[in-house]
Write a structure and sequence with these properties.
By secondary structure, the protein is of the alpha+beta class. Helix content is about 35%, strand content about 20%. Helix 1 packs across helix 5.
């Protein structure tokens, strides 16, 4: 299902599909993978840096390919393929974060080219720093994009992203 950031009618089924994949993937496989990805971190790394470390580790394992296909790959399938688009990588990162006790959100919006102009609709992940809830207006988020390789560790610069929708996990 292709979704554009301004197409609200198609967003609800799209987010149900994404969260369904996250729920399926956030079990033992994600916990074991997250532990393996984080085991190389020095023990003194603060807890708040774990989401960035997970994003960077996922980016090292899986390369981004634009519009790989219409089906969202499971975490296991994504690792097997070694490549995916933002619709594959964002749910994979959300699964890893959820398995580590973080509460991720999906962010849907637009990305800008470094030279100016818009690339198109894009999906990335936000996580609220522990101890700071989503109650803040606007919510205080660490925004991470595992599918963009020119961003250092994956932290999203506001100059390159225009957030349109924030979608929380259904309770």
């Amino acid at each position: 299902m292709r979704v554009t950031a301004h197409n609200a009618r198609t967003e609800a089924p799209y987010f149900r599909l994404l969260w369904g994949q996250v729920e399926r993937d956030s079990g033992v496989t994600a916990q074991l993978l997250a532990r393996r990805l984080l085991c190389d971190l020095p023990p003194e790394v603060p807890d708040r840096d774990m989401p960035v470390a997970l994003c960077a580790a996922l980016r090292a394992l899986v390369r981004y390919v634009p519009e790989r296909g219409q089906v969202i790959a499971s975490l296991s399938r994504l690792l097997e393929l070694g490549a995916g688009d933002c619709n594959d990588l964002a749910p994979a990162l959300a699964s890893l974060l959820l398995s580590c006790g973080w509460e991720p959100v999906f962010l849907l919006g637009w990305t800008r080219k470094p030279s100016g102009g818009w690339l198109g609709a894009h999906l990335w992940v936000g996580v609220s720093p522990k101890g700071v809830g989503f109650e803040a207006t606007p919510p205080k988020l660490l925004e991470l994009d595992p599918s963009t390789y020119d961003l250092g560790q994956g932290e999203v610069p506001s100059s390159r992203y225009e957030r349109v929708t924030l979608h929380r996990r259904p309770q």
